[in-house]
Amino acid sequence: MPVRIDPDERRRHVTDAALRLIVAEGVAGVTFRKVAAEARLNIGSVRHYFADHETLVVAAVTAAGDRMGGRLSRLSAPERCGGDAARDHLLSVLDELVPLDEERRAEAVILVEVIAASRTNPAFAPVVSRMAADLHAVLVEALSTIGTARPETEAVRLAGLISGLSLNAVTPHGDVAPDAIRAVLRAHVATLGR
Amino acid sequence: MPVRIDPDERRRHVTDAALRLIVAEGVAGVTFRKVAAEARLNIGSVRHYFADHETLVVAAVTAAGDRMGGRLSRLSAPERCGGDAARDHLLSVLDELVPLDEERRAEAVILVEVIAASRTNPAFAPVVSRMAADLHAVLVEALSTIGTARPETEAVRLAGLISGLSLNAVTPHGDVAPDAIRAVLRAHVATLGR
DNA sequence: GGTTTTGTATCACGCGTGTGATATTTCCTG
DNA sequence: CAGGAAATATCACACGCGTGATACAAAACC
User: Fold this and answer.
1) Whereabouts does the entry annotate DNA binding, in residue ranges (chains A, B) (predicted)?
2) Which residue of A153, A167, A180 is in closest CB contact with B115?
3) Which of these CATH numbers, 3.30.2130.10, 3.30.565.10, 3.40.50.1010, 1.10.357.10, describes A7-190?
4) Higher-confidence residue: B193 or B74?
């Protein structure tokens, strides 16, 4: 019964269901039938908003990425002074990007899944490389504020550390606990900028 | 025509085909039919050695892991003196674990694929966590030889860095080039142990 | 009020998959 | 030489999938 519905809300409802499925079963677990069931909708309704399977996944991942980006931009404005305040700022940025609680763990899972999938599925490459570029920019700025010698190399190192910690936290390859993540990040930041 | 064949050689031939498929299409691309075609064998022959799909993938990944472990143990014996020699030793260990050339890139791809898959597929958990444990042990020992203050935390950090660099090197999430990997690893080791 | 648009709901098709069952061929053993 | 084991090769089945086509209901528009 097609009651007039807000399309954006509907799309969000569907992408939320897709995100839950990615967390539960991985990107490969996202099928029209499962998404429709998870969203309590008919397959036809889902297909009315998302033509094909990859469009849906990309939309879902983009929504999750925007959510992370929104949290980051809502952080305190970058400190100009390069002291302990700048270090604290970098740490709070890192805390947003890493699976410390359930919400951020779900986001880390989604990122890891789509990054891994993007290796063989070109449809995911644009959104993944855009996220990498955004992360790199944020890290370079935060590192520069601290006064790091070579911000570009350090940003690559820090991006690798974040990705790897996330990967090792959400998989049996490490089973890294939140406390360990925090300890590692603090140890890392402590060695930065002299 | 069942010519008498060495079973181990046959198994290896099949797992090699499976590994090529993982690199080309990911874990999800490993099906009996594709593996049989890649190995120039009949499906029945493949199934004669590997009962089900996950057994095959686990065997293939285990073979690749053993190959990496073999390379590591073939390195020079751990130096007892904790100076620049110990640092060089750690660097040569890291060079073996990271996608610097085609061979190691393929191995990194396989690891990333199965680690990601192990999150939702319990069948892959044992081999993945065993690999993580082996890596952790190697890193702790190398770091201790250097004289690092807290080898356990530093091993978690270094393991995360390796995983993340590998992930970002083999996917569009970074497209990190070999030179960048080397630079990051050298910068990281330079900050270790005081 | 008739028409168009928007959303919901099914059906059927072809494809690739794992898997069970089963021949058929070849070699080794007794 | 007989028999059994090992290996190879097919067949058929049910399953879940994306997708195209299509029907139907309700709101919106003119």
Assistant:
1) 31-50
2) A167
3) 1.10.357.10
4) B74
